[in-house]
Amino acid sequence: MERFVSPPIDQLEKLRQPLTAGERLIFDLFNEKLAPEWEIYIQPHLNGLRPDFVLLNPNVGIAVFEVKDWNLDAMRYWTEERSGKAPKLCASDGIKSFSIQSQNPIEKVFRYKQEIHNLYCPRLDGKAGFATITAGVIFPFARQEQIDSLLKPCLVHRDMLRWSNNYNPISGAEAIAEGRIDLVFPESRRSSSRFMTEDQANDMRNWLVEPDYAATQRKPIELDAAQRGYVTSRTQSGYRRIKGPAGSGKSLILAARAAQLLGEGKEVLVVTFNITLLHYLMDVAVRW
Predict the structure, then answer these.
(1) Distance between CA 67 and CA 58 in Å, rounded?
(2) H or E segment and range at residue 79
(3) How confident is the model over 115-124, as pLDDT tens digits?
(4) Smallest Cα–Cα separation from 63: which of 149, 135, 171?
């Protein structure tokens, strides 16, 4: 049985947000160690959320993972307790201290699990169905002892500590170096769950499969000779007016020209008549 991976493996080097070194290690671990029934979704779009990995097995359950490439020896990290709020994750580079709470992986996976259960898989059976969702954090380049010490207050606040070994696994460099999928993802050893069905898996797949527009953004723009000339050349006066019917490629030329000038170190102002067209032009510029 061939594993389903989205985006396809041959497209991983072309992602708009490239995999980090740690994320690539984790993907290789999942791909090598998991049973082929486990589907792997990379950086899926979940209504504005972008977890690093979501794993899905229609017979077993769902897993969402946040990967942090942090070297906990490179800076000082700590948590600050806050009354009635989640502990704040902080760091210091030796010169200044700052909050990194927006990157707190415990808060991220807590939210992922809540939304998967409540929004994306509404047919999961209450609290029992909640057990079919694993929410884990992986630090490929940090020691387990460091991770446990840093994140314990955050886990306690979210009442995740008692379940961390099974449904909220927190793993470090030792487990990754040894290829210990049983530590990184303990529930992967299961072959079935009475709370998971194919219908529930389909509920989740509808959200996980990479949308067509994201795949299109990895394809380079193809221009004919005349269009390419407009993009790469400059008139003597510096002004150029292009006219043409709808669909003739005016927007392609505009966006590609803007990207070309940015690549030359220039600043560019693009003025358009609506926000939708602006978003389209930005996507085209990225592809160029």
Answers:
(1) 24
(2) strand 76-82
(3) 888 887 877 7
(4) 135
